[in-house]
Amino acid sequence: MRVIVVGAGEVGSSIAASLCQSHEVVVVDIDSERVGSLTYDIDVLAVQGDGGNLETLREAGIEEADLLIASTDDDETNIVTCGTAKTVSDAFTIARVKDKQYLDTWRGTEGALGIDFMVCTVLLAAQTIVRLIGLPAAQDVDAFANGAVRMAQFEVPADSPVANQTVAQADRFPSLTFAAIIRNGEIIIPSGDTVINSGDELVVIGSPESVREFGADISPDDAGPRDIVIVGGSEVGYQVARLLEARDFRPRLIERDPERARELAEALPKTTVMESDATDRAFLERENVGEADTVVATLESDEKNLLAGLLTKRLGAGRAVALTETGEYVELFEAVGLDVAVNPREVAAEEITRFTREQRAENVAIIEGDQAEVLELTVDADSALTGRPIQETVADLPEGTVIGAITRDGELITPRGETVIEAGDHVVLFARTEDIDDIAARV
Predict the structure, then answer these.
(1) Which whole number is the average pLDDT over 224-236?
(2) Which helix (H) or strand (E) holds 208?
(3) What's the DSSP call for residue 325?
(4) How far does Cα 250 stand from its chain's mean position?
(5) 349-442 maps to CATH 3.10.520.10
(6) CATH top-level class for 139-218?
(7) What confidence score (pLDDT) does residue 136 get?
(8) Residue 21: what pLDDT?
């Protein structure tokens, strides 16, 4: 497949790096230094120029392209790029936008603006934050099989009861599968006698109830949020509050600007909006922010988000989730004391990459910087998985492949060695990214 990626920033570079292993990728950017740096790092073709210009797109080979991804930091440029591409090409177009109004317009009219698929960075970031809030201790959460199966990635705290247990000891849930352990960046496929260390990240697949119960097992003191404080009335902060209200939460939101605070108070009937500076310690103490179960920092500045998160943690808040616009800061934020950092650009890049890979699967979650994937496949009568016990099937698949869950007629089946997969089953499996094409071809 020939893919044109317009924009060689953080999002475009990440997408290009993910796709270039199995596709012919062309990257277009107006900045010559970005283009040069990217072609030095990964195996892509490069074109310097404005992606919204027809001649530039022709130079990139738009007439022969199968897919165009417009991923610059400017919404209008991305929209124009997709529309321009459609005038001379049948390529499938994907646009990244920050303004949710564009997403609403696009959803209202199929094929509007010459765009086949649109992702909204702000909304994706808010959805990611809300999923993390709903599952204590989770670093990542994804749903499969229409919600019947959930994948979650948990970090094991030093004081966790699960630390120093074997997988067999920790596996006390009938519908849960331990898919992988990530230790110092390395993926380990565990057996029953594998010991779980503090600091490990566990990838588990199972029913929503079992995943939630296992999360509570990892951190028994974190029973789920009741008092949620959002620091910053940015668009992401607003969307987080709106999504929480839809789940019957009643969050508190701190916004410094009086006019913006009034707008938010009118738009969010179930949210208590407080007009104040979120770095004012006296205010935070007076409003008992330190007693909150979860604090979400969604200010417009990375530094302020870090400060607000650390300050509320120092005051006693249970969990701090912070937004960062800089991808390199994610690990830094978590290293200095925040529980989870969310980078909107990283989330958008993953969503676009996920969408391109759903051509070979119904749903995909990307694990540990694209080292592995959890994917959902429907098997037919000719599949290598059909009609055989799993213990035989897995032996024929690439090493490290784990079948995590099966749904049949909407019912969840926890896979065991003797389980036989039938035609029509939805199978959720974990595999290393390098093996996905091989597995998809067999299934």
Answers:
(1) 92
(2) helix 208-218
(3) S
(4) 25
(5) no
(6) alpha beta
(7) 65
(8) 81
295: β partners: 229, 320
Task: State which amino acid sits at residue 60.
Answer: A
Q: At what angle do helices 121-134 and 344-357 cross, to 10 degrees?
A: 90
pLDDT at 363 over 70: yes
Question: What is the chain's mean pLDDT, rounded?
Answer: 91
Name the CATH superfamily, with its identifier, for domain 2-115: NAD(P)-binding Rossmann-like Domain (3.40.50.720)
> What pLDDT was estimated at residue 174?
82
What Å distances lie between residue 429 and 159, 209, 303, 374, 395, CA to CA?
A: 30, 19, 39, 6, 14
pLDDT of residue 222: 61
Q: What is the pTM of this model?
A: 0.83
> 232: left (phi > 0), else alpha (psi -120 to 50), else beta?
left
R_g (Cα) of the chain, nearest Å: 23
Tell me which residue of 394, 381, 391, 389 sits closest to 425, measured CA to CA: 381
Q: Transcribe 269-284 into DSSP letters.
A: TTSEEEES-TT-HHHH
For the domain covering 228-347, report its CATH number.
3.40.50.720
Model pLDDT, residue 223: 57
Q: Select the more confidently predicted residue: 3 or 410.
A: 3
